[in-house]
Amino acid sequence: MGDDSEWLKLPVDQKCEHKLWKARLNGYEESLKIFQKIRDEKSPEWSKFLGLIKKFVTDSNAVVQLKGLEAALVYVENAHVAGKTTGEVVSGVVSKVFNQPKAKAKELGIEICLMYIEIEKGETVQEELLKGLDNKNPKIIVACIETLRKALSEFGSKIILLKPIIKVLPKLFESRDKGVRDEAKLIAVEIYRWIRDVLRPPLQNINSVQLKELEEEWVKLPTGAPKPTRFLRSQQELQAKLEQQQSAGGDAEGGGDDGDEVPQIDAYELLEAVEILSKLPKDFYDKIEAKKWQERKEALEAVEVLVKNPKLEAGDYADLVKALKKVVGKDTNVMLVALAAKCLTGLAVGLRKKFGQYAGHVVPTILEKFKEKKPQVVQALQEAIDAIFLTTTLQNISEDVLAVMDNKNPTIKQQTSLFIARSFRHCTASTLPKSLLKPFCAGLLKHINDSAPEVRDAAFEALGTALKVVGEKAVNPFLVDVDKLKLDRIKECSEKVELVHGKKAGLAAEKKEFKPVPGRTASSGAAGDKDTKDISVPKPGPLKKAPATKAGGPPKKGKPSAPGGAGSAGNKSKKGLETKEIVEPELSIEVCEEKASAVLPATCIQLLDSSNWKERLACMEEFQKAVELMDRTEMPCQALVRMLAKKPGWKETNFQVMQMKLHIVALIAQKGNFSKTSAQIVLDGLVDKIGDVKCGNNAKEAMTAIAEACMLPWTAEQVMSMAFSQKNPKNQSETLNWLSNAIKEFGFSGLNVKAFISNVKTALAATNPAVRTSAITLLGVMYLYVGPSLRMFFEDEKPALLSQIDAEFEKMQGQSPPAPTRGISKHSTSGTDEGEDGDEPDDGGNDVVDLLPRTEISDKITSELVSKIGDKNWKIRKEGLDEVAGIINEAKFIQPNIGELPAALKGRLNDSNKILVQQTLTILQQLAVAMGPNIKQHVKNLGIPIITVLGDSKNNVRAAALATVNAWAEQTGMKEWLEGEDLSEELKRENPFLRQELLGWLAEKLPTLRSTPTDLILCVPHLYSCLEDRNGDVRKKAQDALPFFMMHLGYEKMAKATGKLKPTSKDQVLAMLEKAKANMPAKPAAPAKATSKPMGGSAPAKFQPASAPVEDSVSSTVELKPDPKKAKALGVSSKAKSAQGKKVPSKTSLKEDEDKSGPIFIVVPNGKEQRIKDEKGLKVLKWNFTTPRDEYIEQLKTQMSSCVAKWLQDEMFHSDFQHHNKALAVMVDHLESEKEGVIGCLDLILKWLTLRFFDTNTSVLMKALEYLKLLFTLLSEEEYHLTENEASSFIPYLILKVGEPKDVIRKDVRAILNRMCLVYPASKMFPFIMEGTKSKNSKQRAECLEELGCLVESYGMNVCQPTPGKALKEIAIHIGDRDNTVRNAALNTIVTVYNVHGDQVFKLIGTLSEKDMSMLEERIKRSAKRPSAAPIKQIEEKPQRTQSISSNANMLRKGPAEDMSSKLKIMYRTYRIQARSMSGHPEAAQMVRREFQLDLDEIENDNGTVQCEMPELVQHKLDDIFEPVLIPEPKIRAVSPHFDDMHSNTASTINFIISQVASGDINTSIQALTQIDEVLRQEDKAEAMSGHIDQFLIATFMQLRLIYNTHMADEKLEKDEIIKLYSCIIGNMISLFQIESLAREASTGVLKDLMHGLITLMLDSRIEDLEEGQQVIRSVNLLVVKVLEKSDQTNILSALLVLLQDSLLATASSPKFSELVMKCLWRMVRLLPDTINSINLDRILLDIHIFMKVFPKEKLKQCKSEFPIRTLKTLLHTLCKLKGPKILDHLTMIDNKNESELEAHLCRMMKHSMDQSGSKSDKETEKGASRIDEKSSKAKVNDFLAEIFKKIGSKENTKEGLAELYEYKKKYSDADIEPFLKNSSQFFQSYVERGLRVIEMEREGKGRIPSSTGISSQVEVTCVPAPTSTVSSIANTNGEEVGPSVYLERLKILRQRCGLDNTKQEDRPPLTSLLSKPAVPTVASSTDMLHSKLSQLRESREQHQHSDLDSNQSHSSGTMTTSSSSTANIDDLKKRLERIKSSRK
Fold this sequence. Notes:
Blueprint: H1 2-8, H2 12-16, H3 21-37, H4 44-48, H5 53-57, H6 62-78, H7 86-97, H8 103-132, H9 138-155, H10 162-173, H11 178-195, H12 208-220, H13 233-249, H14 252-261, H15 267-270, H16 284-287, H17 293-307, H18 318-330, H19 334-351, H20 356-369, H21 375-391, H22 394-405, H23 410-426, H24 434-448, H25 453-470, H26 472-475, H27 484-496, H28 502-513, H29 517-522, H30 528-535, H31 540-550, H32 555-558, H33 561-582, H34 589-599, H35 602-607, H36 613-629, H37 637-645, H38 655-671, H39 676-689, H40 696-710, H41 712-724, H42 729-746, H43 753-764, H44 769-786, H45 799-812, H46 824-827, H47 831-851, H48 863-869, H49 874-891, H50 901-909, H51 914-931, H52 939-949, H53 955-972, H54 975-978, H55 982-988, H56 992-1005, H57 1020-1027, H58 1032-1049, H59 1051-1057, H60 1063-1079, H61 1104-1117, H62 1124-1138, H63 1145-1155, H64 1167-1176, H65 1190-1201, H66 1206-1212, H67 1217-1230, H68 1235-1240, H69 1242-1253, H70 1258-1277, H71 1284-1288, H72 1291-1296, H73 1303-1316, H74 1322-1332, H75 1338-1355, H76 1364-1373, H77 1380-1397, H78 1400-1405, H79 1410-1423, H80 1429-1445, ...
Helix pairs in contact: 3-6, 6-8, 7-8, 8-9, 9-11, 10-11, 11-12, 17-19, 18-19, 18-20, 19-21, 20-21, 20-22, 21-23, 22-23, 22-24, 23-25, 24-25, 25-27, 30-47, 34-37, 36-38, 37-38, 37-39, 38-40, 39-40, 39-41, 40-41, 40-42, 41-42, 41-43, 42-44, 43-44, 44-45, 47-61, 48-49, 49-51, 50-52, 51-53, 52-53, ...
């Protein structure tokens, strides 16, 4: 039972893993209860069980497993983290649950799987279940199938993917196990329920009996569409809403949904592809050409059998198709024609989209073959062409179909129309755009007037279908001239049409129509903009029907129309009428008169033709009034204009009447619903009057009004033809002028350029110069919109005229077309219309290309030419290619039909002769330009083979192929290339050249696309294999392309695609995806319309204005970025990209303004960190080169692409230097406004600037340096710190430029280096500049040496890296340089060092040649200053520097200079302390040491002004002193990375205020404390103090010390002020320690010092005497309690232990002090039961171990009081009681446990609970662990004195000996030193007495130390020196007191008296030697204490400067410099240590 009770106590999670089954059962039961109780799915409790759930389900004990399964099910259902366990748990269920005999277990297992599916993990579950089907155990297979079946039945085929299940079904039916076969049958029935007959083909090969059984089962199934009964979490809410709606309004919606759902699986997808090309009979191609028809038939029958396979594998079917086409076209035997057509049908059905590339060849042949009358042939041909249509798009075959429509044969016409009708049925409004509809309607309109009735019927059917598909709105414009009867017939046909997509599609179209425009702009369907436009335009036809179709549906259906409501309502009347107006019949004059008389006054009509002009004028006035008052709907426009045209009509002779008349026309056009019929009545008259001097303007006004009513394109066409059909040149020129103006006002959309061109040519040939001028002006306006391609039409004009045209174009260059002001009011008032407007440009775009007269060249591509191209002899092949090139060149622009040429050229792309391959590529480039966008249809059969050529091993061939692909893509757009599997097949080839070129091409093209076909996902697996390709370039290109694939496919899809990779690859790829996700660019916003479908040459620049309004709406809707400005910039930049490379000179200037509005640097979160990581991980090249190679530039370009505006990047990497200047100018402008961006991209900017350093152009260099100066000024203001990466990739290159021959540049570089020191430590700059001195360029060497001198002068010796010695030796080498300037620079630098450092320099520079040495000495004599001056300069310099940096410069008081510098030093110090405490990095300790040295350095330099206030020193490991030292720079802001993330400005302010807390001036201190108190008292602001706590506490206890030592002793000071200061400090502290989060930040060392300060204060008797003293002490008491309770318990406990140890060691310390420390410890012991869990016991036990090591039990017992030993025992006892035996596990931090009795003590306590009188453990004594004490034995005293006298006797240590003796006498006044003196000589005795007197004079005479000074005499090296009660004394290793000024004085006197050598190293122990190696680890923050004390020392020193001895008078001032370098002189230190050790022994 002991065992039993053991596990009952364990926590639940441990029970669940217990080896006892009972324990696990209990654990699972408890888990189940816990799971049921947790209400919050995101509770952290769930995460605790993450790793256990698999164990729940795979438990080996069946009973326990059942309980585990129950718990797991509840877990999966409720825990939000459950998804993470899917894979492991389901695989556990499959392998360990499904094989269990218990049905309950299996049920639960299935439930768990289904629950995982419900929480959206269906794919993983299905994957695991399918793996289970491969298991050998049939039980498991049956259970897996059952689970899949249930999942399908409940969740439906949308969630459960059927394809993989259907694939394994045949195998399951063959299983030997009956259970498996039965289960397979059940799942087959279930699948059939969802997809019906689609399931038949995959199962046709199973056992016939089984198939029969299945058929029987299938018949029994209900016919209704199945519905899922269970939903995913994400669908459940929707489902709930849906159910409510259904209960409200029938289940129409449900039906709709299922309609969507069922056809989701395509039987074709489920089939395996069959390869048939290899199975063709060997002699097929011979037989098919045979003379006997039987042989041909045999060949065809063989093919027919093969193509019956429902799915064929992709391959090269070109030859087969060609053969079949030949049979269809040329064979005389109709039976064979039908057979060949069937074969083509089979091919098209089996290959689907892959057949598309052959469609263009076959369609014309089949259509022409329709001349056959035989029904079976016609039927076969119909089937063939219908099947072929499904493999391609109407767009691709439109040219061929339209060409056949003009055939004379009626059957062909009929069948073509019928084919068009059938094709239209497959289209939707979006795939049948206006541009396609227009030519078809034109052709069909001819057919409806055909003489043959069958042709007419077919055409009606086709038009009716079109009407049904796209609606009346879209078709009506093409049916203007159709009479009513025919129109009705078309409508009738349209009602009969059944669309392929069924009613559903119609409804969907209806739904779509009502969406307002934003829906459109945001859409990014593959069809692009142009396709969606039509959808968004409401159609009057469906408008009326729409409500009817919707009435039955639930309210949801109506919703889409709501937003568009306003738009459509506003539009209804206009659009409705417009439709009516389009077909407005011409009215007879009688009807017109009747209508007019109804609205006009009778007199008006009578006087119209009066002979008196005044009457006519009066009549006109009445007419005008009537029109003005008329309502739009009532105005009979046609009747009114007919009245105006009535005699005298437009022949009116009186100009006033005429003006009136024209004005009325304009009014009618503006106010009425003015139709084209009305317009035709008046336009003739208007054109006639346009040239009239008096009436011309009115005529133009009227024309403009008509253009606004009837659209400009139509009006302009009418006006132009009228003007040029008459002879009046004035009218012609004015018409042209009007048109120029109108185009500017209306925009260019929809204008028929073709018609204009011929008219303009006529005008240019006119004899009248005014007409020619007007024509040229019009051309100029057109040029704005059309672009340079316009010139092509006029190349054959006379040179003189051409130069005029060119001059006009030149004027227009760079202007952007004005935004349209007219025409938009009516056509774009509502959002819906914008679509229509936007559509026009496409037509226009097509027009521009259509204008080009295209030549038909198919007749020139003869079979001879084709055979030439395929000849065996390469010369003949070349001839053939030359001929083709000639044909294309001659034709310039060609029609898309080029006969057999594609196949012939394709063969040449893999020619063995590379010259021919290149020639073929050149031809293909020509072909693309010549054919224009129609080249689209050849992408599959010719474009893809060009891509194959990208894999060629020859560089020039690849370059040519890439140029060709780009030329093609420019014409076709990218959609054709990305559709289908062709591209992915290319990428699949493992050719490194092909892969890298293709990926590079995609990376360039993808970012410019707004949408891509879904087939892009097919490339992803191959992209992943490229990421791991052996070839580095392929990997790089693949990585570059990754973000752009992700931009289109999304992260989820890409991540999902990694599922099929190996686990190792998967992890790598996922990591790359994460990285790419960060760099993923946004999709380009809607680009300018024309660019979505690039037209030959010039289209892109054309229609900018038309798209301008759309642009704005896009940037706000599409872009998901929060900042609209940014969004716009992104949109714009991508637009610029997509339009690039289309040769449009005007483009750039057009876009300039809008392009450059956004930010130039885009902030990418963590971008810089990621780049640094990449460089560290060697994923990218390290920025390190002698001259930049291309790959560096490319790499930088790539890195910049994600965070620099595209246009700026183009400028930055342009080949022309002027663009670099431009880029720099922009960067300068944006510097202030985009600080964040600049800092985010700083590494890239600096790298780019290093590239500029290698340019030869001076102007760029000057500009770059100018920018750098501004940049570094900004960075220092922002208090930024350069990262190592930024520095190392920039500074070396900047230093190269310091050697430039031009003075100006050198000066700039030096200025930049200077500024850099503010953002990058000078000590780190030093090595870079040092490296520069090794250059071959003497100017550079000289300048670098000068700069080094400046650094030493400004920052002292500590900048010299790695050590001053090494650095100076290197500098000294240059004294012997052959270049004079370098020699001088080296000498000057060393003189500078001499000025700072004195004679020590000679030691540091090592041995020099005599010549060099004499030069140096000479120079030093001549120009060295006295060293004492240097430090003062240094102090002065610092304030300036720091002040410029401080964000609070205004807070610095303009006090006396000393005050200022003391403040700044404190600031400087606190910054450093903080830098250390903030960065919890391993380097922290090292950093401290550097700073440590820095302070020493300053103390030693500032000679003569030292006050004798002693800082305590802490012992340090000496080893580290020998390591190279780096000094942090005087910057206020911490370098710590954590700190940078915090509030930067607040931080520097807080630093500054904290630094004032320790000020010597009471008021300053109080002020600072008040400010901090304010922050602490406000909860929301208190957080700001985080990270500054240690710093603040240090400042506080420094102030406490200052009060204690200085202020209290100062008689002049009012004691009230001191009390006030005390209360401020204590108040502040109490506030601080009430905020627990801040209190916990205090570190051990700081807490130790703080407690020391507070306890000292409590014991200060001087306070008690003051009136408010008691109150202060009470407050301190309260504060101490707070500190104990609120601090980090580990830290405070540790601090108290160390403090106790110190106070017991310090003989001078009062017993009261130790007692109070122990009381604090007791209080902590009382708190232990509550805090034990938050304490780091290991650390506390380490502290106790150290304590016991220093104070073994014996030693403790010798203490006067027994408190220490009791305290320690109580503490240990409490810890043992609380932790039990486990306490022994916490001794991990103790290296050698035998050094103290701790372990033994604990073991004893554990054994005999309270009995502590156990045997004494062996006492471990340390070297020198004894301490002189009041109870020391006589013998020890004698030894000690003997030691001292030995020192006095030795020459080196005499002074130390005297000092020790003096202290000893003072301490033990009764000690007898007589015996030691009496054996010595008289001289020695008097020498000792004299020495002691001197010391006494020196110390007591100064009066600085109060008489009560306690002096600690310490012998032992190993302990931390103890603070004394009044003054902290630094104890040297030899027990002497070290106070700098004391020593200086004493040294001088002693040296003079004893005649000792001045420069001896031993004269003064270097301060560093105080840091002997500690055996006791020092407190964490001990260095902080050192800083605080040293700086305190400095501060008080400066306050008492005047009272110092003038130390500079004596010649010995040189000694100072010597001693200051002692830090560097490590050998001496070593010797010295040796001596100390030996003397100890």
